[in-house]
Design a protein that fits this description.
The protein is an alpha+beta fold. The chain is about 45% helix and about 25% strand. The protein has one domain. It has a five-stranded mixed β-sheet. The protein starts with a strand and ends in an 8-residue tail after the last helix.
Length: about 100
C-alpha cells in the first residue's frame, strides 16, 4: 500500500499511523465511490473483528480512507458522526455497569 502526497500529509495532520491504516483496510467496511473504494471503521465492522483487535480498534472508530484502483491511498479522514457515538465496547461497558432497577411496590 502506497500513500499519495495528499494522504501522507493528511495522515500526519490527523495523527494516523500506517498500522492504523492497515487495521482499517483489514476490518473496515468497504464503500464504493465511483472508481475509488472507501474503507470506514464503524460499529458494524468492529462487531466482525476478533475481540483482541476490537479492543484496539475501538479507539480508531470513525477512521476513513479512500483507495484508488491502483491501490494508492488517496486521502485519510475522520468521520465525525461515527466518532461521537459511544463505541461498541463503551456501550457494552455502560450497560454492564448499570445496576438492575428494582421496583418498589
Amino acid at each position: 500500500m502506497t500513500l499519495s502526497n495528499h494522504a501522507a500529509l493528511r495522515s500526519l495532520q490527523r495523527a494516523v499511523s500506517p498500522a492504523m491504516l492497515e487495521l482499517v483496510l483489514a476490518y473496515g467496511r468497504e464503500i464504493e465511490s465511483f472508481e475509488d473504494r472507501a474503507y470506514v471503521l464503524d460499529d458494524r465492522s468492529l462487531r466482525k473483528a476478533p475481540p483482541k483487535v476490537r479492543r484496539q480498534a475501538d479507539r480508531f472508530r470513525g477512521l476513513c480512507i479512500v483507495v484508488c484502483p491502483d491501490q494508492t491511498v488517496r486521502t485519510v479522514m475522520w468521520k465525525r458522526d461515527v466518532r461521537r457515538r459511544p463505541g461498541v465496547l463503551r456501550r457494552s461497558r455502560l450497560f454492564e455497569a448499570e445496576p438492575a432497577m428494582q421496583r418498589s411496590c
